[in-house]
Amino acid sequence: MQDLETFLKESLEDFALSRAERKDLKTHLADLRGDPSSEAKVRQLAFQLAQGAIDEFGQITALDWLQGVIKLLYTQENKIKSSAYFSPGGDCLHRIQRLIEEAQRTLDLCVFTITDNRIVAKLEEAHKRGIAIRVISDNDKSSDLGSDLDHLIKIGIDCRFDRTSAHMHHKFAVADHDLLLTGSYNWTRSAASANDENIIVTNNPAMVNSFAEKFQEIWAKFR
Fold first, then answer.
1. pTM metric for this prediction
2. Nearest to 181 by CA among 130, 117, 127, 122
3. Structural domain boundaries, residue 71
4. Any idea of the CA torsion for 12, 17, 18, 23, to the nearest 10 degrees?
5. Around Cβ 125, how many Cβ atoms within 10 Å?
């Protein structure tokens, strides 16, 4: 709570919650979600800080800041959300494309194979706008007809491969270290058009962190 109080005071000195501060505040509030007592303490603290800031910053500025804090504390945006998608059909493909489109800083992909040019096109766009993309894949599948891994390497995306006798069979992605996509869905056209597949997308911090750590473990192993 002390760290949260310090953060709130610093954000108030900026007169309003910036986009970056909103994201940081979500992280600070993550451990308090669903705890009415803790949420009440945050609410009380925010009101106290806003009241004390009225004389210094003005009523409108202080109340705008307070409104932003309360909205993050109680709106659904601040809650853990998970969604499931299924194929055949375009639902899984479109959700993967949207994950790539909405990435703001980093995108870590750990996938058995990539042969769907529609996904590759989104990765190219993300790479061009400066998203730091890392890809882990299976060496056997990377040499298959239709594999797009060589193309990703040529355009400058960092790729590493499992070169053991076993397969790197994961299919997951972590965007900006705060959103996880995982499931049975291979990143291929047949997965969208014919196969019975699934993906789950979640912002659950424990799940995101677990997969992010696994990605880093595999990344370091496949140097």
1. 0.66
2. 122
3. 2-78
4. 120
5. 13
Last residue of a domain, one of 78, 102, 118: 78
Mark whether 118 and 217 lie in a shared domain. yes
* Mean pLDDT across the chain: 88
Inter-CA distances, 24 with 20, 140, 152, 191, 217, Å: 6, 41, 32, 36, 26
| Per-residue model confidence as pLDDT tens digits over 48-107 | 988 988 888 788 888 888 888 888 887 655 577 899 999 999 999 999 999 999 999 999
Q: Are residues 125 and 73 in the same domain?
A: no
The residues annotated with a catalytic role in the active site are 169, 171, 176
Between CA 58 and CA 36 the distance in angstroms is 30
Q: What is the DSSP letter of 152?
A: H
Q: How far apart are CA 100 and CA 157, in angstroms?
A: 14
DSSP state of 178: T
Residues 121 and 103 in one domain: yes
Distance in angstroms (rounded) separating the CA atoms of residues 53 and 38: 23
Start-end of H helices in the chain = 2-13, 19-29, 36-57, 59-74, 91-102, 117-128, 139-142, 149-154, 189-193, 205-221
